[in-house]
Amino acid sequence: MTARAPLQHNGTTILPYAGKTPKIHDSAFIAPGCRIIGDVEIGADVSIWYNCVIRADVNKVRIGARSNIQDGSVVHCDSPDEANPDGFPTIIGEDVLIGHMAMVHGCVLQDRAFVGLGSIVMSGATIESDGMLAAGAMLTGGKTIGPRQLWAGRPAKYMRDLNDQQLSHMQTGIAHYVENGHEHKRAVDAHSA
């Protein structure tokens, strides 16, 4: 994993903030149009898709291996204060799928969590391993989606448990995004050469 100096290349901005420079694994794909700011660490084979914003100016953001954040999504964190001296960093585990136009803010997404298209995960919320937040749903602060649970609605509520076939489908999605990210990275690199 390498720390990247201020970079504006192919419409992507990687910017230090408050003495913290984003650290991005060399195998990660960062699409043109992304903005990555501050105390961010991005793991191996991660893909951050077109026009995403990952802003770690008031706390940290960590993204585990093979996770993907799809086009137009925003990832932020929450500041420490008297009531919560640690604030709410955003911790995204490994093999996490975050759909297009999602808002992920000061929360924990454990390994293999799924955030549907256009969903919102608010400060202090958690999606445990193999948990799923449906498209368009809003997981309010302090709520936890348990393992293998599907939650939907605004505010999100438990709907049902996920079966093995659904979990297998999510893992297929992870593999697809890793490979697709590598293909896009090669195309972007060839275009900028």
Automatic annotation (TrEMBL):
Source species: Croceicoccus naphthovorans
Pfam assignment, any one: Hexapep
InterPro entries cross-referenced by the UniProt entry: Hexapep (IPR001451), LbH_gamma_CA-like (IPR047324), Transf_Hexapept/Carb_Anhydrase (IPR050484), Trimer_LpxA-like_sf (IPR011004)
Name the UniProt record assigns to this protein: Carbonic anhydrase
